[in-house]
Amino acid sequence: MTTAICTRTEIDPRGPRFGGAITTVVLAIALITVGSPLSDVLVAWQTLVFGLGALVGLHAQPYGILYRTVIGPRLAPPQVLEDAAPPRFAQAVGLIFMIVALVSIILGATLIAAIAIGFALAAAFLNAAFDFCLGCEMYLLGARLRHR
Q1: Alpha helix ranges (H) inside the chain
Q2: Is pLDDT of 6 > 70?
């Protein structure tokens, strides 16, 4: 068995990128269909996904479970592992955007929902396409500022 997402503190960095790809697809469909029941379900689902990743841990995040059980075992072991804290923080940032989108949908403010979905989509796309985790970078910047 490979160490795809090996512990709660160190993870295979390919896992969050895989999750970012799935999130990109989910949020793109949600944005295209905003105002429809499909979008509402997708936003609720992604809110749950981000909530599990941020509040419970990356080991409980559905896309991470899929990576760890299906994708990771088929790959060579990762060259390096990374700290789980920055991606977990990124999940929390995504959760905030999805809560804004979900509340906006409930209140009928589809424009605000679309904007929140769009921001989360942009961050997920950066992670999936360019391996640039915006939330992770925010976490690292905050850590540097705290140490000054």
Answers
A1: 14-32, 37-51, 62-66, 85-107, 110-130, 134-146
A2: no
Q: DSSP string of 94-119?
A: HHHHHHHHHHHHHHT-HHHHHHHHHH
Interaxial angle between packed helices 110-130 and 134-146, expressed in degrees from 0 to 180 and rounded to the nearest 10: 90
What pLDDT digit, counting tens, does each position of 88-110 carry? 999 999 999 999 999 999 999 99
Q: Which helix (H) or strand (E) holds 78?
A: none
Pull the structure tokens for residue 44.
């609720």
Residue with tokens 């503190």: 9
The token duo for 27 is 């949020």
Q: How far is CA 24 from CA 12, 84, 125, 127, in A?
A: 20, 20, 6, 9
